[in-house]
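Bumping with the actual sequence this time:
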Amino acid sequence: MTAKLLTLFSCPKPFVHPHIATIQRNAVASWMQLGEQVEVLLMGNESGVAETATEFGVRHIPELACNDQGTPLISSMFDLARQHGDSPLLMYVNADILLFPDLLHVAQSVSEKLSHFLLVGQRWDLDVTEPLDFSQNWAEHLRSFAQSHGRLHPPAGSDYFIFPRHCFVDIPAFAIGRAGWDNWMIYHALKSKFPVIDATADVMIVHQNHDYSHLPGGKPHYKHPETDENIRLAGGREVTRFTLLDANKRLANDRLRPRHWNLMTLRRWVESYPLLAWDNYTLTEKTTRLFWRIERKLRKN
């Protein structure tokens, strides 16, 4: 039996809405192309999850802890991934994300260089409405199609995290599918003094676009009260401003390089330094507001 390098885990939405069902099945099908070194765990008891796990021959972990609103908790997911997977690397990924087989090489390469790290990256947004064909040369065709018909998402919001299993062992009770917790992941890694690596140049992922009809009221995730609770658990709004602009390393052509400095990354370094270096939330908040005021004045002029 091939030793596992990576345990990939996700908590799909209900397979009820036809479009959501299609894009989630596409995502799982792409994960199955990663090879025998990857173990896939589908978590939760939403409609269709168990059946999809059986269909694709992956493990189903139904016993997720939830908050008072019945939303699964990120902390429970991470704990269960460690319990049910014995690979050295763990990967959380959103259930609408298409992955490519070369991701495994990148994960292994980084893990051979570093003992602690968080690997993240931007996504490509693409309209997908039909089941995808994963026959010969599918990866090359999908890459080309996404680059010509899709759009590279801004460096805000993260759809996957790869890290060694001994990292992120104590996570607050964040609600999945709500804003804030992904930003905390980047903050926590930086605060813990291990590299946050922006792998956008070497790892392509594709997000299959969808609406928010699966959420209460059809509202985007950042407009729900559970997002406010996620922000509180994270430590405040300044913590949830951390994005890929805060990554302190980048991966390019299989080589780790220093972060790319520009006006945006320099601004974020100045804003976040008091919080990361001195635990001074108030100074970070004041610095952020100062930059906003300057930006508004420049726009008016």
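The tokens above came from a reply further down the thread. The two ends are 66 Å apart (CA to CA).
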